[in-house]
Amino acid sequence: MDFLISESFRNHGFRQKDIEKALIYEAIVDSNETTRKRLYQDLRMRPNNISFAVQELLDGDLIYEDNLVKNSKQGRPEILIKPNLEKLVSISMWVESSRLASAIINIKGEKKNKQEVEVPSNVSNSQFLGIVTKQIDLLLNNISGRQRLLGIGLSLPGVVNHFDSRWIFNSRWPDVRNLDFSKVSDRYQVPIYLCRMLEAELQAMVLRRKPLQDKSVVLLHWGYGIGAAFFSDGKVFQSGFGSTFEIGHIKTASVNSEKQCTCRETGCLETIASGWALFPDLEKKYGKFSENEAEVGQKLAEINPEDEPALITAEKAIAQAVNTLVRIVYPDVILAYGPFLSNPVLRQLFFSEIKNLVPYYMKDYITLEVVDGELSNLDCIGSTVGFFKSKLLQLLVAG
Fold first, then answer.
1. 47 burial level (CB within 10 Å; 0-12, 13-18, 19+)
2. Phi, psi of 34 (to 5 degrees)
């Protein structure tokens, strides 16, 4: 993962040797193996500066020296330098359908010792917390004394107050409400970071797709629930009380339903357009829908929306909600994903509707893109990136 430490140092007026040390570390991590000579050739720094920074990185156990490598031309053999990817680690927990997954995450965002457990739909606060601590205990057994656990990140569906580490509510496990995760931090004596899945996914996506970093981006999910996240000016927007861009629970004129939402209100967009609202009637005709969104997408792709007026109504309602969102934040890019967009007809209708609804001066300006597949593989990165970046900002300051 590119944490942009050297760029952060440069933007905040750090010393040149701090910037150089960060650049050298980033080059070593990116290449996976290099030598001092290659670093000199690639970065065009003074050899003494490279040697000084490399020695500090070796002393900090952030990198290590490996075998000698012979040059094809005459000259002294060079020592390979490799990043110690497992020195700094975090624990990440995220949701995959009805399962809670967890893993140890290294500095490159790679998952180690992944495990998952099925969570019953009627789970209570105390039961869910018990599942979380059991998962963490199992993972801690795989972290050695030479490694440093930086924190625990949880990316969860629904409404999250990350400032108080409190999970307000969600559609997947409706009996889990106002769950305080600060006890987890106290128990393991490490910081904890709680965020929405969409926020984690968007954070990781921007981190991996550099062209997005200078743009404003909306990430929209249309599946079992409905939600969005927003990135601008280098950060994902978050609220001091709870989640932002919870469009699944906005009230619009297109929603004429007395069905109670999972948030205990009526008139929410989710009551006519979410999976939990639509699937019961669709199952009468098409059979049981899986808890796995990838499998749901395959099933929905075979349905003709023209035979299901409820799907057309849902598509139009979501397009109206996105149009409202566009007029508030004016994004450069809208990335959309979820099982309903696996249906080619719904996808085409959805994007055509948005293009028709947005202001005329944005029609050729805004970019619309469907991100195929689930994004749960990004959750673990997005929820832990802050731990790694914060620690590297300390460790990469030159002595």
1. exposed
2. -160, -170
pTM score above 0.70? yes
- pLDDT tens sequence across 43-75: 999 989 999 999 999 999 999 998 777 665 666
**Cα separation, 35 vs 50, whole angstroms:** 10
Note the pLDDT tens digit of each residue in 159-177. Answer: 888 888 899 888 789 899 9
How far is it, in rounded angstroms, from Cα 197 to Cα 293?
Answer: 14
- How many Å apart are CA 282 and CA 339, to the nearest integer? 14
Kindly tell me if the per-residue pLDDT of 76 is higher than 80. Answer: no
Give the integer Cα–Cα distance in Å for 5 and 9.
6
User: What's the rounded Cα separation, in Å, for the pair 107 and 19?
Assistant: 19
Task: Name the nearest CA neighbour of 176 among 132, 133, 124.
Answer: 124
Cα(297)–Cα(276) distance, rounded to whole angstroms?
14
Asked whether 365 and 74 are in contact (CB, 8 A), the reply is: no
Tokens of 249: 């629970």
Domains recognised in the chain with CATH numbers = 5-84 (1.10.10.10), 88-201+378-389 (3.30.420.40), 209-375 (3.30.420.40)
Do the beta carbons of residue 197 and residue 156 sit within 8 Å?
A: yes
